[in-house]
Amino acid sequence: MEKIENWYFEDLEQTSSTNDSVLELLLRCHAPCIVSAAVQTKGRGRLDRKWESADGNLYVSFAYELDTSKIGHYVLLSGLAVLETVKTFAPDVCVEVKWPNDVFVGAKKISGILFEKGPDNYWIMGIGINVARTPKVENPMYQITSLHDFGVQVDRLKVLNVLVKHFNFLKMQYQKHGFSFLKSIWLDNAYNRGKNVIIKQNGKEIEGVLADLDENANLVLNTKEGEKHILVGDLFEGKNE
């Protein structure tokens, strides 16, 4: 079986979902593993939203063990790994991470990440990065972009190799230095930090200034009612003068 650094690895021509395929590989190898695919027919995002899987983009899932009590930390870590990967290929554009782990380039979404619980202490981390094409989506929540839009021409598997290196490095540094290491990088690259934002959750809206992260990686907003800690929700720009 092929390996990328310390991960067992399979690249498929087509799959319904790399999250499903990496679970199948995990049950065979019982070790950290990665599955990517050239074509993904039933990609999904958070809250069962459909992930548009255009040809030439990166669709990949990682399966690895982690302390479930630290899942919020790994959600941020995954976004930072994508952030650093995109910066590697597009160093001259503004690349930011939107809470909790979407990556934006020039204020447009280029990547999405989905975590799902696997067997025992394993979690499945599915990542989509728009490499060669910008998907056509009806009524998208955010504007969408790709590396190609910024003049970058690169093969999806080269992007994957760089992603694995950044993920491994960040994970090693996190295990060595703790959450403060991730928090510092995240805040330095946070989309709309210090600005008014709106969090939409279950039909409700919470507005405030994006101020910080707490030790569980929850978003900290300064609102008119005081400090609020946000566990889940979709973040949008608020009214800023």
Write the layout of secondary structure elements.
Blueprint: E1 3-4, E2 7-15, H1 18-29, E3 33-40, E4 58-65, H2 71-89, E5 95-98, E6 102-105, E7 108-117, E8 122-129, H3 156-177, H4 179-188, E9 196-201, E10 204-213, E11 219-223, E12 226-230, E13 234-237
Parallel strand pairs: 2-3
Antiparallel strand pairs: 1-2, 3-4, 4-8, 5-6, 6-7, 7-8, 9-10, 9-13, 10-11, 11-12
Helix pairs in contact: 2-3, 2-4, 3-4
Based on the model shown, name its key terms.
alpha+beta; BirA Bifunctional Protein, domain 2
Report what the structure shows.
The N and C termini lie far apart (56 Å). With 241 residues, the protein is an alpha+beta fold. It folds into two domains: 186 residues, 2-Layer Sandwich (BirA Bifunctional Protein, domain 2); 42 residues, SH3 type barrels (Roll), CATH 2.30.30. It contains four helices and 13 strands. Strands 1-2-3-4-8-7-6-5 form an eight-stranded mixed β-sheet, with helices on both faces. Strands 12-11-10-9-13 form a five-stranded antiparallel β-sheet, with no helix packed on it.
